[in-house]
Amino acid sequence: MRIRELFVSALRSLWSNKRRSILTMLGIVIGIAAVITILSLGDGVRVETLKSLQADSSGQQSSEIRFMSNEDGGGGGVTSDGMMLPAPSSNSKVSGFNDNDVSKAEENPKVAKVKLQSDDDGFINSQGNINSKSESFHVYLTKKANHDHLVAGRGISKSDILANNPVALVDQYTAKKAYRTINNALNAGIELNGINYTIVGIIRDDATHGEYQQYQIAVPRQVYMNNSGIVPKNTMKITFVKGADVSKETKKIAEHLNSKGSQHNSGSYEYMDMSEMLKGISDTIQMITLFVVAIAGISLFIAGIGVMNMMYISVSERTQEIGIRMAVGANQRQILWQFLIEAIALTLTGGVIGYLAGIGLAQAISSFLPFKATVTLSTFLLAFGTSTIIGLIFGILPAKTASRKNLIEILR
C-alpha cells in the first residue's frame, strides 16, 4: 500500500469514529495550545524587556561614553560605613570631549544625534580643605532647599539658594574627623575649590539623594557654579538610528576616542557594554518560559497516553479488517505503518488545531497586557514536531500489536 493510500485510509478510519477521535485529540489540542500560548507571551515579554532597556523614554536607543581622568584614579572612594561612592566626575576643569570628538562620532552612519552633558548629575568630586586638612569630597550640588538627613544644625534654606549664601551640610564622619565633635563643626568652615563655605548643618553618613547617590557634602549648586566656573562635560550621550547595534557602534566610537580623542592622553573613555547584560536577561526570561512550558508539557504526556489507549481499542475492534488485509497479501510492515500513520495523523491534526488556538489565545491575552505576543517560526516547528513525536511514541506499541496478529487465529 502506498503512503498516500495509508494516509487516506488513516483519515477515513479516524473519520468513521469522529466522536472518539475528537475527544482523544482534545488532549493534544489543549497541550499544544498551552505551550504555544506560553511561548508566545514569554517571547513577547523578552522582546519588550530588551526594547525598553535599549531605548529611552522616547523609544530611541542610546548609550553613554564617559571620560575618566587619570587624576580621578578611576574610583569613587569609600565612605565611613564602607559604602562605595558613585564613580567620580572629573576634578579637572578640562572637559573630556571637544567639538572634534563630537564631529567624529556624528560621522558614524548609525548615529542619529550626539550630545555632551556635564556628568555631575548634581554630584561632583571636589578637592577641599577642612580644618587645614586637604581631602577629596563627594559633593551634592543642590538646586533647591535641602533639609534631608539632618542630625544637627539647619538645612540649606530657600533664602540661602536665592541669596547665593556659601553654606554647606557635612556628614557626621567628615565633621568628627575634622573637628572631633559635631557641635565643633557647626558654623566652622570648609573650603571647596577656593571658596569658603559655612557649615550650617550635619547630615547622616548614609545621606543619599535619589535611590543610590550617596554624598558627603551638600552645597548650593548656583554658588558652586558662580565661584568655580564650569563643570566639565565628561559624558557623551549618543542616540542611534533604529535597528543599530548599539553595543557594537558604541565600542567603535569608544575605541576611536581612546586612540585619537582630545583627552586620550589624560584618561580613558569608558562605556557600559549592554550586550552582556541584555543577553543575561534574555537567557533568564527564556529559562523561566521553558520551565513553565515544561510544566504545561505534562498535559501532552497525558494526552499521549489517551492516544495509545484509543489505538489499542481501535486495533482490537478492527481485528477482522487486519485479517482480511493479511489474507489479500498485506505484510506486517504495511499493517504497522497503517496504524502508526493513523496515530500520527490524529496527533498532527490536534497539533495544528492547538497551534492555531494557541496563537489566537496569546493574541487575545496580550491585548490586555502592555506588550504584544510574539509568534515565531520556531513555535510552529515546535508544535509540528511535538505532535508528530507524540504520535510516533504512543502509536508504535498499538501498531506493533496489530502487525503481529496471527492470520490463522483471526480466521478461527
UniProtKB/TrEMBL annotation:
Presence of keyword Transmembrane: yes
UniProt-annotated stretches for the region Disordered: 61-109
Gene Ontology CC terms, in alphabetical order: plasma membrane
Bilayer topology term: Multi-pass membrane protein
GO molecular function, one term: transmembrane transporter activity
Domain MacB-like periplasmic core: 21-228
Domain ABC3 transporter permease C-terminal: 294-406
Entry keyword set: Cell membrane, Membrane, Transmembrane, Transmembrane helix
Chain segments annotated as transmembrane: 21-42, 287-314, 335-357, 377-397
InterPro entries: ABC3_permease_C, MacB_PCD, Macrolide_Exporter_MacB
Cellular localization per UniProt: Cell membrane
The keyword Membrane is assigned to this record: yes
Skewed-composition ranges (Polar residues): 88-100
Top-level taxonomic group: Bacteria
Membership in a protein family: Belongs to the ABC-4 integral membrane protein family.
Protein known as: ABC transporter permease
Species name: Xylocopilactobacillus apicola
